[in-house]
């Protein structure tokens, strides 16, 4: 969908817990190998939260860094959106706890659940508040402690995920040309159980049985998700470029969700974006769900791979199944 919203990212921040777990560390306790993980996923290491390093803790670190980068304080915010599937508590929202941790006033705060597409959904939501004039300075955070919901004895999923947070401050554009040119969000709920957590919700509340049967861990049909992701990422990218009337060659950097290097390479090959214009950091962080896109974008910005005036495409894909893309001029 073509948007032309005069909204800019004022600053970004990110944070990962210091502890790093390599493929060899995992291979020491699981039936896997560095070779298998590297070849099948592109992941070499991931950051893991220690005790006390919770989703809120990660979110606050990233948020404070984003505020500093934007030269703003918590008092300047008038809305907080936290995108997460690993909230601090199931009740209340992590965004409310973040509002208190940052010391903001009584500004609205809510969580948004769109898994690995979360940040693109969150950015789109926040931009619409600004475009409508109901908010001026919005904090959007993607924060996850995926290792807390992953079955660490399941080699199919334990190797994939890491913990991180990424944050952005959105506000009305302060210069002409800075804008969100097009967005596309989508979901296919019929594929909900391709990535899901069976217990802990109203359908199957926690009990001794759910714990004994390990039903609180995330489950994923990896191969099915893989096939759908390649096609859908390509489709949503092409649609967003077409909506904005922008050629592939004009995009400075594509920032895709980091779930599998082979998925990224395959989708980019099909659409004709060379890998030197694609941000990849999955080798160091693994899949960090809603934190993945802002973490990658923040790193690219800091490294000088993107600068003001550039065209940047964000692309998310994950549980739901959900997907989303946003094309913006920085
Ligand atoms: O972020 C949310 C969206 N998620 C995704 O996009 C994830 C999409 N899926 C994937 O990235 C890939 O499907 C995986 C990386 C999860 C798996 O790779 P794959 O190439 O699809 O492998 P597979 O599941 O088809 O399994 C191939 C073999 C199986 O053994 P057999 O049946 O051929 O004997 C698995 O048991 O690899 C085995 N296997 C492993 N072997 C060593 C599965 N996990 C491992 C492992 N180490 N960690």
List key phrases describing it.
33% helix, Peroxisomal Thiolase, Chain A, domain 1, 24% strand, five-stranded mixed sheet, alpha+beta, binds oxa(dethia)-CoA, 2 domains
Q: What is the number of domains? A: 2
Helix content, binned percent: 25-40%
Q: How many strands appear in the DSSP assignment?
A: 14
Q: What is the percentage of strand-forming residues?
A: 15-25%
The name of the CATH architecture of the largest domain is 3-Layer(aba) Sandwich
Could you say which structural class the secondary elements and strand pairing correspond to?
A: alpha+beta
C-alpha-based Rg, rounded: 19 Å
CATH topology description of the largest domain: Peroxisomal Thiolase, Chain A, domain 1
The low-confidence runs, each spanning 5 or more residues with pLDDT under 50, are: none
Ligands and ions found: oxa(dethia)-CoA
End-to-end Cα distance: 19 Å
Contiguous helical run count: 11
Order of helices and strands: EEEHHEHEHEHEHEEEHEHEHHHEE
The geometry reads as globular
CATH superfamily of the largest domain: Thiolase/Chalcone synthase
Multimeric state: single chain
Widest beta sheet: strand line-up: 1-9-14-13-12
Average the pLDDT over all residues and give the rounded result.
97
Major sheet attributes? 5 strands, mixed
Q: What is the CATH class of the largest domain?
A: Alpha Beta
